[in-house]
Amino acid sequence: MLAPERRTRTDLAVALAIGVVVALFVGLMWWTSDSRNTTSTPMETTLPPLPSASAVPDAVSELWHAKSTRTPAAIAVRGSVVTADGSTIVGHDAATGRELWRYAGPEPLCDVIGTWSSTLAVYRNSLGCGDVIVLKGENGARDVTRNSDADDPVELTSDGTYVVSRGSTRMEVWRSDLVRTLEYGRVDDQNVSNAQPRTGCALVSAVSSSAKLALVEDCASDAGLRLSILDPAPKDAAKPEELASTIIPDVDPDDATVRLLAAGSDRFAAYIAEPGKPARIVYFDAKGEPDGEKVLPSAFTADPVTAKVGSVVMVWGGSDVYALDTTTLDVRWSRAGALGPGALMAHDLLLPVKDGIAVIDPETGKEKRIMRVQRDSNALVTTAVAGNVIVEQRGTDVVALR
Question: What's the CATH code of the domain at 148?
Fold first, then answer.
């Protein structure tokens, strides 16, 4: 019979040393990790959705206001109003402004939007604006996260099914669990980069639907701006599937302003402005070919801001606002003197205008009345609705009205 093995003092010392090293390594990883430098204070209870307003009020007054420098538009998720400043995101009670939940990341915020009944935020990391988190709408708790290679800055847009994160050289598309469904443009992995249809292009503008994604690119090898129609969720996220790709005719890439506005069932709308030519909304079919246009009375004076409001997509370009049918994208009606694209409340469009909020039938554009509201400027105003509370973002200030 073999003699039983006995541990010597040396064995014990070596084991202890290994344990200390492992503990130090784990501690160092935690000390330098994002988790240590993150503060998450969700609600202990679940926030129920607010009941929809039965009617637009006759008059409103300010309930509360807060600073929000990192939200490009007003955000209302379930029963909370979301603000973001620096690296901190806060969910507020819509009626009182009381803090309901808070999340603070280790780095500055790049962008914050409301989508999927949640809040989606992108923080800076070593790769750009690629540290992504979804906070649950019902309590502000962390839901899903991802880390991606990304440009800095990026623009986030959502069609309700997908979120598009577009920078000047790289674009990603995510579904609600933050699984990447499409990777496009600059890719550092050479094997993956070879699957891209083109390289070295500037990504100018993008718009998506649940079935198609349109992208305008400026490529040095092309004679003009290129419009590509893509599958937002191909079989392999690293291998884009182009449904169509063509050069936009009669547009000078050096002088033209081209911005995609909306995606319909099989049609896309883009704003195009060039020196010496009237500004216009140009339509493209599913093959990327021109399919009509709408000449505008004047050029946009600001980057277009869009919002889906019922059966129309509202497009604001600095003063005038246009209501596009969500299916055909044809212009149903327009109105001058708007401060933003507005939002829906009790089947009416609340359109911010100078000195107030115009209550409008979104189907016809007929104005019913104006609620007087005092504002300090006539800058862009984006609107959201939380139950019977109207939320306006005016520059970097969020104001709740009722």
Answer: 2.130.10.10
